[in-house]
Amino acid sequence: MNRRPLLVVLATGVVCVVLALVAWLWWYPQAEAPAVAEEPVPIGGPFTLVDQDGREVTEADFAGRYMLIYFGYTFCPDICPTSLQTMSTALSMLDDEERAKVAFLFITVDPKRDTVRQMADYVALFDPAPIGLTGTKEQTDAAAKAYRMYYRVPESDTEDYFVDHSSFVYLMDEEGRYVTHFAHDATAEEMAAKLGEVLG
Fold first, then answer.
1. Cα(58)–Cα(79) distance, rounded to whole angstroms?
2. Which ranges constitute the DSSP H helices of 53-174?
3. Cα(58)–Cα(48) distance, rounded to whole angstroms?
4. Positive/negative CA dihedral, 80, 86, 90, 91
5. What confidence tens digit (pLDDT) does each residue in 125-147 have?
6. What are phi and psi of 15, to 5 degrees?
7. Other C-beta atoms within 10 Å of 65: how many?
8. Strand, coil or helix: 113
């Protein structure tokens, strides 16, 4: 039996199928891949604290504004004042309209020493000055936990101690959602550039 005609027919059929498939792929509209919903970063959340004027504030008081937040303590010898100065300098690089859209917050992790009066005296050292927030230990602990802050206040019978803590600056959007964070070595220029980008 001569198989040559059969092989020719089969080969021709395969070629036709391949050509049809190529044509279909060429002309058929490409379906868009379904959008993958990004999971929100679990940083941030509700808080109830007291500002340097003794007024109770919550995250709702800053709704509609971006929040630039730093956790630390006023007796910090170097890291905290350096970070706060960087933030203050970055904000000073913005124009008045941009700066009005940002709430600059400094939240203590050492409420035992950082009283309302202490916070008021401390934040006044910066220009522009942050809003200093303190409260009960339970309130400041809850705020720090919401922002995944690491800190450890040593047990001490004296007022002379250091608090070990992470040093990040958090940027939250107008609805209190995480946008990004800056490490301790971020420059004011880098911070201002990012702020200008999100505010623009």
1. 26
2. 79-92, 96-99, 116-123, 137-146
3. 5
4. positive
5. 999 999 999 999 999 999 999 99
6. -60, -45
7. 16
8. coil
Q: In what order do the strands lie in the sheet with 169-172?
A: 56-58, 48-51, 131-134, 102-108, 66-72, 169-172, 178-182
Nearest CA-CA partner of 62 in 44, 74, 80 = 44
Choose among 102, 107, 44, 47: nearest CA to 76. Answer: 107
Beta-bridge partners for 71: 107
Q: Which residues pair with 106 in a beta bridge?
A: 70, 132
The reply to whether CATH 3.90.79.10 applies to domain 48-199 is no
Q: Is the pLDDT of residue 17 over 70?
A: no
Question: Beta partners for 178?
Answer: 172
Q: Where are the domains of the chain?
A: 48-199
- Looking up tokens 């007024």 gives 55
Average pLDDT over residues 22-27: 36
Q: Of all helices (H) and strands (E), which one includes residue 158?
A: none
